[in-house]
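Journal club prep, notes for RB
We'll compare a predicted complex against what the paper describes. Inputs for the heme C case:
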Amino acid sequence: MKFAILALLALIGLGIAAAAVLWAAFPRSIPAPESRVEGDPAQLARGRYLVNHVALCLSCHSERDWDRQSGPVVASTAGQGATHTIFSPEDAPAANITPFALGDWSDGEIARAITSGLNRQGEPLHPDMPYYVYARLAESDVMAIVAYLRTLPRIDHQPPKASPPFLISMVGRVLPKPYQAKPMPPQDDSVARGRYLVNAAGCRMCHGGDLAGGMRLNIPGGGSVTSVNLTPHPKARVMGWSREAFVAAFKAFAVEEVRQLETPRDRNTVMPWIQYSDMTETDLGAIYDYLKTVPPVAPDS
Ligand code: HEC
Ligand code: HEC
């Protein structure tokens, strides 16, 4: 009997020791890549495009003006971080990603944060940072994003630190997901290009994994909106639009007067119309072409 209790205690002790070793050892299991950014004009232009109009990094990592259509980024706060994002009103403030905060990080450390969700020390980030989305970006796009972040005006600002839930931290440590670079889709294959962009732009974060919509999202400052069904089901309204109408719905927000429109907060939307409206017509058309190929899902009502 005594022996059994001792053995049990020894087992528990071993278990705790093993957990401690795992905790300490695992974050370092994904080394930061050695890659360096060149920062040539073409790379910076691609990075600017992705950060502002596709991956929408600054929509979470800045303050936003919710008195105007789709809450444009307040330019003077671009990248300084935010006390909350639309997904987590409280527990996950977004970090400062201007050179003030990332100046000492290597290019590889920033790339690892974007694609594997680990901070500079190798500890898991809060999953509101959608690294699982960016883990499927081509390497050239990740490096373009890093290069562009280096050029953001430095803003001296320290948002509160996010604290990932314990369980998620543990899973992030024990089962870290290394970046699996995807190839750049062939530029003349519109469906492949659209598939890549729908991922990179995080459409599923709000329209759901099956893109069937129905997610209720809070508008900061009041009210809520429900995302719509983007699958080509005959009863789903949006994909009944023509390709031209789809592209035009986005491009309607590329007009300065529309961007300046004051909008009551409870009638605003979190759909990032203004941010996406600067995507090229080729890219918006590719998104439409891809959405036409996803499995149709019937709308709820
Ligand atoms: C949906 C909101 C959201 C989007 C979009 C987003 N982030 Fe984040 N990001 C966060 C949050 C929240 C954190 C803080 C996580 C933490 O500290 O645990 C974060 C953390 C980071 C960090 C780590 C900073 C540090 O000091 O540890 C980097 C780097 C980063 N994001 C870069 C980016 C880049 C680049 C993009 C676009 C490709 C992006 N983020 C898009 C929400 C977002
Ligand atoms: C931050 C959340 C969010 C993201 C990200 C998002 N959407 Fe939306 N989207 C919404 C919400 C909420 C609505 C419904 C309210 C509205 O129409 O503004 C919506 C509506 C739409 C509509 C329908 C407009 C109409 O008139 O019915 C289209 C088309 C659309 N989204 C496409 C996309 C595509 C394509 C992406 C990715 C490139 C995307 N959305 C990403 C939240 C989002």
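Talking point for the session: The chain has a mean pLDDT of 91.
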